[in-house]
Amino acid sequence: MKKLGLGLACAAAIAASTALTAPAVAQDKVSLVVNTVQIFGTIDPAKVNDYTEYMAAVNLYDGLTTVSPEGQVVPQLAESWEVSDDSKTYTFKLKEGASFQDGSPVEAKDVVYTMKRLLALNEGPSYLFADLIEADAVKALDDRTVEITLNKVYSPFLTNTPLILVVNSDLLAEQDGEWAETYLGDNSAGAGPYQLDNWTRGAQMMLSRYDDYHAGWPNEKPIDELRFVVTRDEATVKALATKGELGMSSQYQGNETYEAISKLPNYKIIAADTATGFYIKLNNQTAPTDDVHIRRAIAYAMDYDTIRDVIYPGGQLNGPLAPVFADAYLDSLPDTEFDLEKAKEEVAKSKYAGSEPIKIVHSYVAKTAFEEEIGLLFKSALEMIGFEVELQPEPWNRITELAASVETTPNATQVFYGPTYPSPDSVFYVQYHSRAKGTWSSMEWVMDPEIDALIDKSRQTTDIAEQNMLYKEIQQKLYDRQSDVFLLTQKKRFAANKCLQGYAWVPMQSWDTDFSRFWWNCDE
């Protein structure tokens, strides 16, 4: 067996949070208000698929492993693991003393149930495992040992294991339905640092600290209570801060909001470079964005400097992968370019030349100020070169519905996408592989057999240097076909109370908002 380097379970890193009100100080209890701009669609760990849902999941549940700020997969419920010589069988030894929030121990049978449930429901993170693991290939060798056998070599497998969010099988066996879907739609059954107190859908969610959390609470003042407040209204967020009630803001506020809150005496701005890309996802299959020249024209028509420096400050993104993945990053791609003359030339090369105005639908998240500004910029530039642009602001849940079929997916949609596991594979497979079609992540509908084959090959390659060469080839092909408009890499910003400590960015979606990694200290 090949033994992987293990190290101690990581209690390091991250989270965002909220304000300490006067009553909370008096009671020596830290209660944080955190605003989100998106609703929590589900808290079922087998169904989560966007940043708010993962934010809930990472606080309510623990996985076999987790991710450090350095991007390393480190122990969580599994204290160690071994990999067979053929790289197909993974044997995990569970941590002794870990318990679910009802006090019962976490055992191998719970991991088996979790995997079988995930595969059976075939939602959320299941796409990572569906073609890789058969239900009977997950076995409990004893109470603390789990064996998972893959049906083929898949080199990023360990980077997926933080998404094996373990559920309490005994508790769920007492609920209605084979997989207790109704119960887990409204309740938590995990071994994570927080438990669900109440949830008013579309408005707020309350979590409280699990005192007996297996990773412990090493800091003097951990975050005792979390209150997620759902609001897109910038004025409401500023008002919460002005009253001292905001612990930590969403990462998707407008510039004016960050600037206003930063001037308040008890607030700071937390900022971090990330692997998250901000894309205009172009539907590669429907007219007129089925033509590569139209897609290139759109890319040339974007005023990148205004977007990156004024509307939503961010870093350079020249292709589908952020430079954070340094070894896999293709640094030979040219910088993005705003040039309306070149845009016109591309239109003239397209099969739609001469049929102006060329009609196009551009969608973005409704009531998000900076996305509306980008939409207006998009419309203004394209209508100067022969397009007729219909702006289509939609609630986020409606955008996810539209993404389900190629026919309903808009021509162009503004989307942030960050890796859901710490590997370039998350960027390529989740967004561009044909098997990942029909989700908000894959609104490009690339459907390219050559790109599929390269992604598949990279997933079966255990030689890191060879794998990185494949990643670079994938980037070049996606760039050549102009799969998206590559707007920027997100510089995450949160407005936070100055007493909130412990934030560190993690290269995995929402893992930086694991609030067990935060604490309250007004002296630091």
Task: Give structural notes.
Its main location: periplasm. The protein has a 6-stranded mixed β-sheet with strand order 13-17-12-16-14-15. A 5-stranded antiparallel β-sheet has the order 1-5-6-8-7, covered by helices on one side. It has a 4-stranded mixed β-sheet with strand order 2-11-10-9, with helices on one face. A hairpin with a 3-residue loop joins β9 (194-200) and β10. The radius of gyration is 23 Å and the shape is globular. It contains 16 helices and 19 strands. The longest helix is centred in the last third of the chain and has 17 residues, at 464-480. The protein is an alpha+beta fold and 524 residues long. Residues 1-26 have low confidence and may be disordered.
Order the strands across the largest sheet as they lie in space: 13-17-12-16-14-15
Spans with pLDDT under 50 lasting ≥5 residues? 1-26
| Range of helix content | 25-40%
- Largest pleated sheet: 6 strands, mixed
- Provide the gyration radius in Å: 23 Å
Mean pLDDT: 93
- Counting DSSP E segments of at least 2 residues, the number of strands comes to 19
DSSP strand content = 15-25%
Structural class: alpha+beta
Total count of helical runs of at least 4 residues: 16
Measured between the Cα atoms of the first and last residue, the distance is 46 Å
What's the gist of this structure?
The protein has 524 residues and is an alpha+beta fold.
